[in-house]
Amino acid sequence: MNRGTRLTTLLVSGAAVLLLILALCLSQLPFGSTYAVEADPSALSGAAAPEEGPAAEGEEPQDPGEPQGPGEPEEPSEPQDPEEPQDPGEPQDPGEPQDPGEPQEPEEPEAPQGPRGLTSENGSLVYYQDDGTLFTGGYKAVETDGKTSYYWFRPDGTAFTGGYLSGAVGGATKYFYFQEDGTAFTGGYKAFSLNGKRVYFFFQEDGTAFTGGYKTFSQGGKQYYFFFQQNGTAFTGGYKEIKIDGKLYYFYFLANGQGYNTGYKTVMRDGKKYYYFFGSDGRAVTEGIRSVSLGSRTAYFLLQENGTAFTGGYRAVPSGSGNDYYYFLSNGQAFTTGYKTVQLNGKTQYYYFQKDGKAYTGGLKSVSFGTQSYYYFFQSTGQALTSDFRAVDGTEYYFQENGRAARNTFASVGGSPAYFDENYARKADGWFCVGDGYYYAGADGVLLTDTVKEGYRLDSSGKCPTKYRVIQYVSEITKPSMTDQQKIDALYDWILDSKMTYIRSYEHVSSSWVWEDGWADDMAASLMDRQGGNCYRYASFFGFAVHEATGLPVTVYHGMTPGMSVPLTYHGWTVVKQDGVWYSYDPELQKFSDFTRDLCRKRVYSQSYGTLYFEGVGTNLF
Questions:
Q1: What CA–CA distances, in Å, run from 338 to 290, 334, 366, 484?
Q2: Can you say whether residue 140 is alpha, beta or left, with left for phi > 0 and alpha for psi between -120 and 50 degrees?
Q3: H or E element at residue 545
Q4: Buried b (16+ CB within 10 A) or exposed e, 586-603
């Protein structure tokens, strides 16, 4: 080989080496910007307050907001060009070289690979798979620097960054919220507007919305309770029944999705009001008494197994070894303002409910009704004692059918009428005055009714108006300081001087009336009503008046006396027993005839023929 041939061979070999070095450098150059996206779900604290609901009904949990992107990755520095090889100059002729044989062809360098993984292209995130193709299949978990973030790649390969999205994952519809950096929100609770409506979700660690129903979570040291539906949205429709671990619970979810957990609440269901008490865990309390502050007062409720407050009236509530007794109104609140009548098993009962709603069970208690007060005796069951006697601190009371201790009133005792005075004592054995009438109580305290006593007629209630009226005349005509005779004379003279007239009537035509009990009462009442009458009326009135003024025995007679134009005529007169002797008095005969005073006033009484009175039939007024 000559010198020219050798030089050519050396130049070709050098060029091959330079091409190989250049190929290796070019294979290290980047083909697009790649960066690691690191999801940074912030803590839930620090977001804006909810739009709905007062503070008393729970604050909306804070939205952690959009996470900050990791920023653009640094561009790799430009690779350095390889140094030009040194020109060896003219080679020295080493002499005849050995024939190296055919030169070896240099190996072809590997073609550079395209981008892989998460890449930014034209302002959008894309994901290149290992085979270099774009991922367009929707939901994708991407691990970067040991942390997994979740994306949704559209059919054009770009990552979705527009907020809420629903899509199929593994054959099931899932719900997401993709942030501006394309990562799915995984920070838990999130509120946002969707189609003009405020909605509430809970996004899990894999970015999918929780759709499993009831969920509780903590934020800012406060516990929240929600019910997330199958579409991921929080239930905001109010009352809801939820089974948890096989047991049924009752909740009320507010317009912001939060479970109400601050106590008493009125709930409308099917057009009807119900009353609940929701505990701090959002669940309706289902047993026992609960107190609720309503303004300046405290209300008490009895919660039932279905969570609703009892509204059915009287109820015995177990307490310790016994019971407490309440009355619950139609609004669920216990009656706390005192006396109340209650219908139990068709019978009226009487109670006194205290400020804590419990019925008073301590025995004797004064209960006020306006300006009046009455004693009741409330037993251990809370019911007032009725129709029975009970001694308390040395005083025996009779508690009437209405529960009140009888005082200054008539009452039925064992079906018989009775009267109790201002000291709660039962009247017995004698006359007594109530209002404009007199009554007579026997030794057993039972009032006489529908009968005649001492000439007076008592009606069906036991009242005798005539006795009351006679005593009014006596008190005006006589004085307590007078002797019995002075009182008799004062009454006698009053009749003579009065303007009472003689009114003829003919009861004597049929004398059967004189045998009837109470005829003297009828005659005396007639005289007072008409301010006049015949001899029977005057005799009866005078007889009652003398007896009331003096207490002496008096008899009123119906018989015969010498008339003005005939030997004998029917007549009525009065006799009084004084110092063991019966004396006759006849003021009517003196007032309306020619008979003198000595014949008509205080004559020893006799009924023999030829005397003033004959064949008389008497009615005792004592």
A1: 20, 11, 11, 56
A2: beta
A3: helix 535-550
A4: bbbbbbebebeeeebbbb
With beta carbons less than 8 A apart as the criterion, state whether 82 and 25 touch.
Answer: yes
Structure token pair of residue 454? 């001492």
Query: Residue 90 contacts by C-beta under 8 Å, 6 or more apart in sequence?
Result: none
Q: Give pLDDT, residue 516.
A: 76
Q: What is the DSSP letter of 73?
A: P
Q: What is the pLDDT of residue 483?
A: 98
Token pair 């798979």 in the structure block, residue: 129
Which DSSP helix (H) or strand (E) runs through 569? strand 569-578
How far apart CA 568 and CA 612 sit, in angstroms, is: 10
Contact 153, 182 (CB under 8 A): no
pLDDT score, position 114: 75
Please tell me the predicted confidence (pLDDT) of residue 567: 65
pLDDT score, position 96: 55
**Sign for the pseudo-dihedral over CA of 157, 159, 164, 168:** positive
Distance CA(41)–CA(84), nearest Å, equals 53
Task: Give 368's strand partners.
Answer: 373
Q: Which residue matches tokens 């009287």?
A: 314
How far is C-alpha 180 from the geometric centre of its chain's CA atoms?
Answer: 52
Please tell me what DSSP assigns to residue 309. B
The answer to whether the beta carbons of residues 312 and 328 sit under 8 Å apart is yes
Go through 173-199 and write b for each residue having 16 or more CB atoms within 10 A of its CB, e for each that does not. ebbbbbbebbbbbbbbbbbeeeeeebb
| Measured distance CA(48)–CA(42) in Å, rounded | 14
How far apart CA 574 and CA 334 sit, in angstroms, is 70
Closest CA to 556 of 536, 528, 583: 536
Locate the DSSP E strands across 480-553. 501-502, 532-533
DSSP string for 247-271: EEEEEEE-TTSPBP-SEEEEEEETT
Cβ atoms of 572 and 539 closer than 8 Å: yes
pLDDT at 22: 40
Judged on CB neighbours under 10 Å (0-12, 13-18, 19+), 421 is middle
pLDDT score at 110: 61
Quick one: tokens of 597? 């005073």
The Cα–Cα gap between 354 and 298 comes to: 12
Residue found by looking up tokens 């909306």 in the block: 60
Whats the size of the chain, residue-wise? 622
Token pair listed for 612: 């003033």
The burial of 136, by beta-carbon neighbours within 10 Å (0-12 exposed, 13-18 middle, 19 or more buried), is given as middle
Handedness of CA 487, 490, 493, 497 (dihedral sign): negative
User: Which amino acid is residue 431, in one-letter code?
Assistant: W
Q: How many CB atoms lie under 10 A from the CB of residue 6? A: 14
**Is residue 336 a contact partner of residue 355, using CB atoms and an 8 Å limit?**
yes
* Amino acid (one-letter) located at 331: N
Cα separations in angstroms, 585 against 492, 569, 610:
8, 17, 18
- Is residue 87 helix, strand or coil? coil
Q: What angle do the packed helices 519-530 and 465-477 form, to 10 degrees?
A: 60
Q: Can you tell me the distance from the alpha carbon of 110 to that of 319, in angstroms, rounded to the nearest whole number?
A: 90
Residue ranges of the chain with pLDDT lower than 70? 1-113, 507-515, 563-567, 607-612, 614-615
